[in-house]
Amino acid sequence: MRKPALLLLHSPASLNWFSGTFVSARGVRPERVAPRYPIWTKSLHRHGMSSYSGGDRGGRGRGGGGRGAYYKNKYGGGGRNSGDARDRGPLGGNGNLGDNHRARTSTNGGTFQDLKQLLQHIDGRQYPAYHDLETAPNTGWVHPEGFVLQVGRAQADPFAPPTRCRVTLPPSVSRISNSFYTNATRRMATGDFLLRRLYGNCKRVGADHSLRSSSGGKGGWSGPKGGDVQVLEPTQNVIEQSAVQVDEQGNILCQITINLPAKGRSIMGHAAHEIMDAVLPQLISDSLMFTSMNLDSIRTHIESVEDQAWLQQQLDTAGLVSFVRNGAILPRVSGVEDRPMAGSVVAFKSPPSLQKEFTLPISGVVVQGMGIRKGVTLICGGGFHGKSTLLQAIQSG
User: Fold this and answer.
1) What DSSP assignment string belongs to 286-334?
2) Sign of the CA dihedral 302, 303, 308, 311?
3) Dihedral of the alpha carbons of 325, 331, 335, 336, in degrees to the nearest 10
4) What is the pLDDT of residues 6-22, one digit of tens each?
5) Interval 211-229: pLDDT, tens
6) How far apart are CA 41 and CA 356, in angstroms?
7) CA 15 to CA 393: how far, in whole Å?
8) Which of 118, 221, 290, 352 is the most exposed place for a label (fewest CB within 10 A)?
9) Residue 345 in contact with residue 242, Cβ under 8 Å?
């Protein structure tokens, strides 16, 4: 019986499959997804109601709310027959914003005590008042421990995408060792280690749970919502990413999102202060401060990534396009998961004719595995024998 086969066409790119972990030589930047119009507003429009009525003027006319008003409040600007948008209010009115709809201006930040007073001041007001938290470039809210919180564009609505924030820790605050950022590979490896630590701690303390989920989903539209801190989930790839970075000066730059809490459309200032002044500093202290972590574990992580980078550089000289280490676990948990499958899984073993051996320079470990030569390679096997799994492993690097 003829066995099915896969034909692998590859180029001499430096790819590698190492210790059952996906490691890519190139970074992949996530696509920016255009903001979606909230689903709940569509139901309101079917019944002739406005999801954003602009105060006590309802409907979808020129002076009221409706779909256009939602986007004007969120993005600004006018439209057809609207005149100069700079002379109009965010809801299409005459520019008289009142207390609930004021012009957005970025502040120069201040101390966390100033931030507390600001959140107490806007407590109970309409949600757009959260724009007062926004900070101008090169400014921010300075914590007593020394890190700086910068707030980008604050969300305009509880159902809008969460607020983007950046936390900056200078080396004098994080106590990072100079040896952890002396070259690009070490900076990437250190950032990857810190991201995994931050994500794990965020899940452990439940900071990623919203007020709605904590209350069992009770309260409906007028109930509490938001209040969760989100961090980019790391994958099996050790790649350049923007969630946690270490620059050439040793500054740690961390980007997170905070879903600012609200009850209905009213600001929950005290809950927001709890997140920014208690939850966030604890996450930073546990995850990004080097005085709170095992330095041997981060050194091992950096050495592994450096060995991996060295191994990738050897492939072209050895006439290979890929290397699959013996003992690697190729099957994944599922088709949409990149984590290796657990349990009784058959580990990979190279055929003797394709086996190669390398001595890693940093750890001194001798690794053996299958080297795939430049050219055309045919992968043969029966159904569910792992042909696609091997191909995906090679493709992922």
Assistant:
1) HHT-GGGS-HHHHHHHHHHHHHHHHHHHHHHHTTEEEEEETT----BSS
2) positive
3) -60
4) 444 444 333 333 333 33
5) 766 555 565 556 788 999 9
6) 60
7) 10
8) 352
9) no
* Joined tokens for residue 222: 């007028």
Q: Where are the alpha helices (DSSP H) in the chain?
A: 39-46, 66-75, 112-122, 171-174, 184-205, 211-214, 269-274, 280-287, 295-317, 387-396
Q: Which two tokens stand for residue 159?
A: 């159902």
Structure tokens belonging to residue 77? 């600007």
Residue 66: what are its φ and ψ, rounded to 5°?
85, -170
Q: Which residue has the tokens 């209350």?
A: 215
Place of tokens 């938001």: 226
- Whole-model pTM over 0.85: no
Three-state DSSP class for residue 277: helix
Q: What is the pLDDT of residues 82-114, one digit of tens each?
A: 434 333 333 233 333 334 444 455 678 899 999
| Number of C-beta neighbours around residue 187 at 10 A | 19
